[in-house]
Amino acid sequence: MSIQDERDLRAQLSGLLDGVTVRPAPVAATVRQGRRIRLERRISAAAGVAVVVAAAAALPVVLTGRPHSAGAVTSAHYSVRVNVLDPIARGGVIAEGVTDGKKWKVEASGAPGNVTVHAVGVTGANLVNTQGPLATPNPIVMQTIGDAFDEQGAFTTFYGLVSQNVARVAVQLPDGEHPSLTPVSWGGYRWVGLVLPARVPIVRAVVYSGLSVAYAELAYAVPFRGSAFIRWWHPGQVGPAPVTRSLGSGVANGKPWRATASIGPWGWCFVYGLAHNEAEGCSGVAPAVEFRGQEVAVMQCTPATGDTPAMGVAFAASDVTRVVLRFSDGTSASFRPVEVAGSRVFGYAIPMHARVTGSREYGARGPIISLLPSAPTVSPRWGC
Fold it and tell me: Helical H runs in 47-106?
C-alpha cells in the first residue's frame, strides 16, 4: 500500500460506530500451529485434500498466504458475481455466484463440532474440515480453501463467519470490482463465501451493519498477500506503515535459511525457513505488546522434519542485543535481534538431530540471564 493509498483510505474511512468493539485477532497460537503444519506438508510433499484443524477455536482467522516462490499476481481482467441468497441457507449452500463464466457454490455440512466446507463447480483443492467448536466472530473470521496462490489451481474459495450485526461484506479487487457478500444462516451461524480466479488478491474488505438504505461501516481489513485476514481495524484507524526487513540468515546442516518481517496494515507477519520452502506466521498484535515483560519468547517455529532443520522467529526485549543458543551436539550459534515496527525480533535455526540445551541473552554490558532446560517456566521451547 502506498502513502497515497493510506491517505485515500483515511479520507474514505470516517467515524466510529458506537457500541462496536473490534479487537485484535487472538491468532498467535493458531498461527504458530498452522504454519508448522503447513511447512511439514510442503517438505513431505503430502498429497490429497488439505485438512485444516484449528487450535483452540475452529475457523482460524489466519489464511494460507502466498508462498515465497509464487509468481506474479494475475493482472488480466476477470469477472466475479456473487448472488444474493435467502437469509436461511438451503441445502447448506452458504454462497453462490459466477466467476469468469463458471457457476459455483460454497456448501457447508456436518455438525457444529465437525463442519465440512467445500466448493462445487470449481477446480483445485476444494475441501476444508474444521474440528472443534466454531469461533465467535468479532466482527468476522475468514478462511480459504487451498492456497490462494496455488499455481496448479484455477480458482480460490474464501468463506467465513460473521457476527449478528454484520449486514454486508464489500470486497475490493485489483481490477476495480467490488463483490458484495450477504450473510446467510446455517447451523446456528451466519456465513459468507466467494470464489475468485487463482492468484487474484483481495485488496481490502469492509464490513457493514444496518440496512441497504443506511449501511454503517464496522471495520476493514487489508489482507496479508491478498488472502490472510489477520487484523480488522475501526473506521479511521490505520495500521503499521508497510515495512519489510531481514531478521537474519545463515546455514544449518549445509542448507541456507533466512527470516524476514513483513509488517503493515495487515498486521505483524513473519516468513522464515529454507529458500523457496518457507513458513509464514502472522499476528494482529505487535510482539512488543504480546510478549511484554519477557526477555525472549518464541513467536513461531517449525520442528525438524525430514532433512530440514528446526527454524523459527523469536521476540527479544529492548535490552537484549544478542542471543546465544547451545546445542546438544556441542555447537552453538549467535543471533542478533532486529528492531522493526517498535519490536525486537530475530530468526534462528537449530541443527538437525540436535536440541537446545541452554541459551543466554546478552546486553550492552554483558550477559543478562541464563535460561536452562531445567527451568521450563522461563525457557522458551526453541525446538517447537
Answer: none
Strands ordered across the beta sheet of 255-264: 243-252, 255-264, 267-274, 277-283
Place of cell 510482539: 287
- Residue the block writes with cell 530468526: 347
Question: Would you call 30 exposed, middle or buried from its count of C-beta atoms within 10 A (0-12, 13-18, 19+)?
Answer: buried
> 317 with 296: CB under 8 angstroms?
yes
C-beta of residue 188 within 8 angstroms of C-beta of residue 165: no
C-beta of residue 156 within 8 angstroms of C-beta of residue 195: yes
C-alpha 206/C-alpha 306 separation (Å) is 42
User: What would the grid cell of residue 84 be?
Assistant: 444474493
Q: What is the DSSP string of 171-210?
A: EE-TTS---EE--EEETTEEEEEEEEETT----EEEEEEE
DSSP code at position 331: -
* pLDDT of res. 15: 35
Name the helix (H) or strand (E) containing 316. strand 310-316
Q: What is the pLDDT of residue 193?
A: 95
Whole-model pTM: value is 0.74
End-to-end CA distance of the chain: 34
Strand, helix or coil for residue 269: strand
**Average pLDDT per 10 consecutive residues for the chain, totaling 384 residues:** 43 36 39 35 27 26 33 65 95 95 93 85 66 76 68 79 94 95 94 92 94 85 92 92 96 94 96 88 94 93 87 95 95 96 96 92 80 49 82
- Which residues share a beta bridge with 117? 108, 128
Going from N- to C-terminal start, the domains of the chain cover 3-221, 243-371
CA distance 326 to 312: 16
As given in the structure block, the three cell numbers for residue 156 are 480460490
